[in-house]
Amino acid sequence: MKRNGETKRRRNVAEEAEQGGGDPAMWEDLDRNFRQVQSVLDRNRSLIQQVNDNHQSRMADNMSKNVALIQELNGNISKVVSMYSDLNTNFSSAFHGGKNGRDGGGTTGTRAN
Predict the structure, then answer these.
(1) Is the dihedral of CA 32, 74, 5, 92 positive or negative?
(2) Rounded distance between C-alpha atoms, residue 109 and residue 83, angstroms
(3) Residue 22: which domain range?
(4) Is residue 108 part of a domain?
(5) CB under 8 Å to 25, separation ≥6 — which residues?
(6) Domain total for the chain?
(7) Residue 32: inside a domain, yes or no?
(8) What percent of the chain has pLDDT over 90?
(9) Residue 105 resides in a domain
């Protein structure tokens, strides 16, 4: 799902990098990582709505479906915590003399799934 400000935000990231705001690849990595986090958060929003709808229906089958939905939600929350931790590490490394937020293996440390 595209957001209205996404194109503007991408343009701002590129402009910031061009104006001496750091390594353009670092900003693109951060932008990509934030978009991955937002994707998981959007999925969580959908899961929460499904859980609420199932709960309000008071149907036994729908209530039992909530177990799997809540388990997925719990897993996604752990994933978001991990992704934010990686973002923090990458951002700190980039601004404290690291290799643009990359570890020695050349990865950004993001976890897409």
Answers:
(1) negative
(2) 8
(3) 5-98
(4) no
(5) 100
(6) 1
(7) yes
(8) 47
(9) no
Task: Give the closest residue to 55 by CA, choosing from 42, 66, 47, 45.
Answer: 66
- With respect to residue 111, please indicate whether it lies within any of the assigned structural domains: no
Q: What is the pLDDT of residue 108?
A: 46
Tell me, letter by letter, the H, E, C secondary structure of the chain: CCCCCHHHHHHHHHHHHHCCCCCHHHHHHHHHHHHHHHHHHHHHHHHHHHHHHHHHHCCHHHHHHHHHHHHHHHHHHHHHHHHHHHHHHHHHHHHCCCECCECCCCCCCCCCC
| Structure-token pair, residue 30 | 């951060």
- At residue 102 the predicted structure's pLDDT band, cuts being 50, 70 and 90, is very low
* CA torsion, ordered 90, 92, 96, 100, to nearest 10 deg: 20
Query: What mean pLDDT, rounded, does the chain reach?
Result: 78
- For 43-66, letters b (16+ CB in 10 Å) and e give ebeebeebbeebeeeeeeebeeeb
Global pTM exceeds 0.90: no
pLDDT for 29-64, tens place per residue? 888 999 999 999 999 999 999 999 999 999 999 999
